[in-house]
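Design request, C-alpha cells follow.
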C-alpha cells in the first residue's frame, strides 16, 4: 500500500520529519518497507518567466525564448507547441540533471540547436517525473516568483510503501492510516468537508435497480449526475494520484480512484448512455455470457460470477473491473455512480479465476467498511460536481440485503485483564483515550466498546488489549523474566512416535519430504482410480476455497504427492531416491453420526518410497536397481528400530496401484498395519516416471496402538544352538509365507527359528520352478541338544515337508 505524506496531511496534522512518521507507522504495526523521494532528483529545477518568444529562423517548430531565472536573463531554444510570451515555466538550468527512461541522466550543458545557442531546457511534465504528458511544456501560475525552487512548490511528494497485513483492510486507505497516526500522535482526525447539492428530478425516475437475492451483494447505492464535462483533472487531483503510482485518466474516473485511495471505498462509474434501458441488475452471470473489461481483454463468465448488468448484458465484473462498453469517455454526459458492498469470497474467487487483480478487488477481498457506501457515494458525487460540473439528482437507487450487518459488535474490556496480559497498569481514562482515538465508541462508562465496521479484526477482549499495547508502543512496555516453576511436559504419544519414525528413517538413509497439505484430484485418481465405494481413498474431500484447481482437495493418502515428488526428482537429480513423509490423510468416514458430522476421518500416515539404484559398495562403479527385497528389508528393519516385529504376507485384497506379483500386507500379530509393494507400471506411466518404484504406507494409529500393547518378556536360552539347512525345489508361484506357515504347522520340537537364506531361478532347474534354501535353528531351554536329538527332529521335518508332493528336497 502506497501512501503519500501530503495526502495524509489532508486528514491529520503530522510532524514535519518524515523519519518521525516512518517510526510511528512501524511502531503501530504498519511497517514501512520503502520510501520514494523524487524531489531529491529534481532539486535544481527553478521557476522562470518567459520574456520573449520568437520563431527559429531555421525551423518551423522551434522557438527562441529569453527567460528570467530570477538571477539573470538567458536564452533557451524550445520545441514545445504551447510555448508563449509571459508564461511561467519550469526551467532546467545548466548543471541540472534529469533522469531518462533508460536509467541514465541527462545533464544540462550549453548547446547549439540549429545554430542558435541554448542555456538550459524548459520542461514538460513527463521530463520532470510528474506525469506521462508530453503534449507541451508545463505552465505554472503567474503568481509564482522567478527563481523559486520548483521542488518547494510541493509538486513532489514523499511516498511510503506500507506492509499492510490481510486483517487490516482499514489501513488500505489514506484516511485509515491517518486515523492510526492521529491516535499515535494524540491529534484529532480532520472532518471530511463536502457539500452535496441535489436537484430534481429523483434518481429513481431515470434509473432502475434490481438485485438478485443471495447474489453476494448485500448493499448497493447508485446516484445519477447529469451534464458532466469529462476532461483533464485539476492539478491537485492528478498530483495526488501520481504520487501513489496512478495515472490520471479523466476528471470523473480520477475522482473514483481518489475516493478508493482516500477512504477505501471502491466505486465504479458508468456512462448512462451505454446502459440499455437505464437499468442496472446485480446478478450471477448466465451460461455463455462474455465481457470485455476496460483492459481490453475478453472474458468468458461462469454461472458463479457476480456481475453488474444493464438491461441484457454484463457491464461490469462485480468488485473486480468494469466493462469497456460503458466506461467513461470524452463524450460522456450523464454518469451513474455505483458504491456497493460485495461478498469478499465471491470477489476473490472470480478475480483469481479471471486472472484480474485490481485495486478494487484487493480491497473487496479483504472486507471493506460495511457502513460507508452511502456517504462515500455522496462524497464522490460532490467532488465530481466540483471538477466536472453537472447536476446531482435527488436521492439514490439503493438496495440493502437481509444479511447486511445492522448492529455493531460490542466488546467488554477489563482493566485487570489488561494488566495481566501486558504487565502494565494503564488507567481506564488512558485506555478509553487510546481506543476512541482509533474509532471505537464506548457505549457506557465501563470500558464496553462498539467495534466500528472498518475494524473486522477486533472481535474479542484480547484483540482490544493488543490495540492498547500497539498504541502505547511495544517498546514502552517493560519486560521481565517470567517468574514461574518450569515443569517439562511429556509429548503427546503421536508426536513421540512421529519423532521416533523420523529419527529411524533418517538414520536408514531416507530423506523427509514435506508436501503441501492439499492434493490434486487428478493425481489421486491416477493412483486409486475414479471415485468409487470400494476404496475410500478415491473420494477426497473438496476444498471450498482452493488455492488453485490443481490443489483442490485434501489428500486421502500420502502416496500421490510422494510419487509426484519422485517424478520431479527423477528429472532434476537422477540416481537413488529415498523419501518418506509423516502427515495426515482425510477420507470419507465409514459411519456418519448425524447431519452436522462432516463425514471425514483424519488418519496419521507414514509413507516411504524407494526408486532408482542402491550403491552396493563405496568403490563399486556398478549399482543395483532397487528391488522388492530391498523394500522388504527396509520395512522389517524400520519396524524393528521402533520396537515392533512385523511380517509381510500375501494380501487378501490386492491393491490395484501395486504390481500384482510384488505386493504384501504389513502385519503385526493379527493387525494389518498397511501395505507395501512395487508401483504398478500403469501408475508409473501416468506420473511420467521411468524408475521402478517401491513404497509402503501404514496407518500410524494402528502402529501406536501396537506399541502401547503390553510387552510379554520370555527368558532366553543359555544353551548352545544347532543349525541345519534344507534346499527345497518348488513351484515358482509358491510363496515364502506359505512355506513358513507349513513349517509352523508341523510343531517340530526344539525348532526356534527359520530363516530364508537364498532364492534361485535359472537354467539349472526346471522351468517354472525355483529353489529356496532355509536355515533351521534348534535349541533347548534346559540342556544342550545332542546331534542325535537334532537329527531326529530335523529328519522328521524333512519327511513332513515332502508329504504333499509340492516340495522336492535337493
Amino acid at each position: 500500500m502506497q501512501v503519500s505524506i501530503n495526502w495524509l496531511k489532508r486528514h491529520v496534522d503530522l510532524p514535519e520529519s518524515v523519519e518521525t512518521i516512518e517510526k510511528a507507522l512501524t511502531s503501530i504495526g504498519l511497517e514501512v518497507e520503502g520510501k520514494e523521494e523524487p524531489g531529491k532528483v529534481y532539486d535544481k529545477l527553478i521557476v522562470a518567466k518567459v520574456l520573449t518568444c520568437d520563431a527559429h529562423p531555421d525551423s518551423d517548430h522551434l522557438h527562441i525564448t529569453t527567460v528570467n531565472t530570477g538571477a539573470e536573463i538567458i536564452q533557451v531554444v524550445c520545441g514545445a507547441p504551447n510555448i508563449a510570451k509571459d508564461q511561467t515555466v519550469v526551467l532546467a538550468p545548466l548543471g541540472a540533471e534529469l533522469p531518462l527512461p533508460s536509467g541514465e541522466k541527462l545533464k544540462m550543458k550549453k548547446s547549439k540547436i540549429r545554430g542558435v545557442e541554448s542555456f538550459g531546457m524548459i520542461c514538460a511534465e513527463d521530463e520532470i517525473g510528474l506525469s506521462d504528458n508530453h503534449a507541451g511544456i508545463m505552465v505554472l501560475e503567474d503568481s509564482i516568483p522567478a527563481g523559486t525552487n520548483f521542488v518547494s512548490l510541493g509538486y513532489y511528494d514523499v511516498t511510503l510503501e506500507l506492509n499492510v497485513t490481510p486483517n487490516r483492510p482499514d489501513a488500505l486507505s489514506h484516511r485509515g492510516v491517518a486515523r492510526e497516526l492521529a491516535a499515535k500522535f494524540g491529534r484529532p482526525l480532520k472532518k471530511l468537508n463536502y457539500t452535496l447539492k441535489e436537484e430534481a428530478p429523483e434518481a429513481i425516475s431515470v434509473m432502475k435497480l434490481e438485485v438478485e437475492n443471495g447474489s453476494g451483494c448485500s448493499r448497493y447505492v447508485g446516484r445519477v449526475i447529469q451534464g458532466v464535462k469529462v476532461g483533464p483533472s485539476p492539478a491537485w487531483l492528478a498530483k495526488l494520484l501520481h504520487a501513489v503510482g496512478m495515472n490520471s485518466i479523466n476528471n470523473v474516473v480520477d475522482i473514483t480512484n481518489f475516493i478508493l485511495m482516500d477512504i477505501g471505498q471502491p466505486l465504479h462509474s458508468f456512462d448512462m448512455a451505454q446502459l440499455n434501458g437505464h437499468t442496472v441488475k446485480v446478478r450471477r452471470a448466465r451460461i455463455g455470457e462474455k465481457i470485455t473489461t476496460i483492459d481490453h481483454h475478453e472474458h468468458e463468465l461462469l454461472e458463479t460470477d457476480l456481475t453488474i448488468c444493464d438491461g441484457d448484458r454484463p457491464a461490469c465484473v462485480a468488485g473486480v473491473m468494469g466493462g469497456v462498453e460503458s466506461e467513461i469517455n470524452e463524450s460522456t454526459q450523464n454518469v451513474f455512480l455505483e458504491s456497493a458492498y460485495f461478498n469478499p469470497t465471491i470477489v476473490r474467487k472470480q478475480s483469481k479465476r479471471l486472472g484480474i487483480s485490481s485495486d478494487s478487488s484487493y480491497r473487496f477481498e479483504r472486507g471493506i467498511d460495511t457502513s460507508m457506501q452511502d456517504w462515500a457515494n455522496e462524497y464522490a458525487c460532490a467532488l465530481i460536481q466540483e471538477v466536472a460540473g453537472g447536476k446531482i439528482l435527488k436521492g439514490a437507487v439503493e438496495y440493502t440485503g437481509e444479511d447486511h450487518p445492522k448492529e455493531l459488535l460490542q466488546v467488554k474490556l477489563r482493566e485487570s485483564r489488561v494488566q495481566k496480559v501486558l504487565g502494565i497498569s494503564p488507567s481506564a481514562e488512558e485506555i478509553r483515550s487510546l481506543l476512541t482515538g482509533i474509532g471505537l465508541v464506548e457505549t457506557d462508562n465501563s470500558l464496553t466498546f462498539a467495534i466500528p465496521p472498518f475494524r473486522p479484526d477486533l472481535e474479542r477482549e484480547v484483540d482490544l488489549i493488543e490495540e492498547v499495547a500497539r498504541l502505547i508502543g511495544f517498546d514502552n512496555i517493560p519486560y521481565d523474566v517470567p517468574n514461574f516453576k518450569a515443569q517439562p511436559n511429556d509429548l503427546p504419544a503421536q508426536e513421540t512416535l512421529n519423532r521416533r519414525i523420523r529419527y529411524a528413517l533418517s538414520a536408514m538413509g531416507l530423506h523427509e519430504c514435506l508436501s503441501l497439505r492439499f492434493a490434486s484430484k487428478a493425481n489421486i485418481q491416477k493412483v486409486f482410480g475414479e471415485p468409487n465405494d470400494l476404496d475410500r481413498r478415491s473420494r477426497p474431500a473438496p476444498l471450498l476455497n482452493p488455492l488453485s484447481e490443481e490443489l483442490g482437495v485434501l489428500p486421502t493418502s500420502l502416496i500421490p504427492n510422494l510419487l509426484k515428488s519422485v517424478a520431479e526428482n527423477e528429472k532434476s537429480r537422477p540416481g537413488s531416491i529415498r523419501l518418506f513423509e509423516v502427515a495426515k490423510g482425510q477420507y470419507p468416514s465409514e459411519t456418519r453420526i448425524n447431519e452436522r458430522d462432516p463425514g471425514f476421518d483424519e488418519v496419521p500416515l507414514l509413507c516411504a518410497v524407494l526408486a532408482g539404484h542402491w550403491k552396493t559398495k563405496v568403490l563399486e562403479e556398478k549399482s543395483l536397481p532397487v528391488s522388492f527385497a530391498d523394500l522388504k528389508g527396509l520395512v522389517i528393519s524400520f519396524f524393528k528400530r521402533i520396537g515392533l516385529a512385523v511380517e509381510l504376507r500375501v494380501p487378501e485384497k490386492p491393491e490395484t496401484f501395486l504390481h500384482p506379483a510384488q505386493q504384501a500386507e504389513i502385519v503385526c500379530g493379527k493387525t494389518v498395519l498397511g501395505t507395501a509393494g512395487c508401483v504398478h507400471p500403469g501408475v508409473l506411466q501416468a506420473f511420467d516416471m521411468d524408475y521402478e518404484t517401491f513404497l509402503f504406507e501404514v496407518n500410524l494409529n494402528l502402529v501406536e496402538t501396537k506399541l502401547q500393547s503390553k510387552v510379554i518378556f520370555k527368558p532366553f536360552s543359555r544353551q548352545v544352538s544347532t543349525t541345519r539347512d534344507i534346499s527345497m525345489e518348488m513351484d515358482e508361484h509358491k510363496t515364502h509365507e506359505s512355506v513358513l506357515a507349513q513349517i509352523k504347522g508341523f510343531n517340530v520340537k526344539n525348532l526356534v527359528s527359520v530363516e530364508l537364506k537364498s532364492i534361485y531361478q535359472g537354467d539349472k532347474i526346471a522351468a517354472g520352478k525355483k529353489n529356496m534354501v532355509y536355515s533351521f535353528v534348534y535349541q533347548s531351554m534346559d540342556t544342550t541338544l545332542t546331534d542325535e536329538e537334532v537329527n531326529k527332529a530335523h529328519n522328521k521335518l524333512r519327511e513332513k515337508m515332502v508329504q504333499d508332493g509340492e516340495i522336492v528336497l535337493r
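Comment from the thread starter after seeing the answer: thanks! The mean pLDDT is 90.
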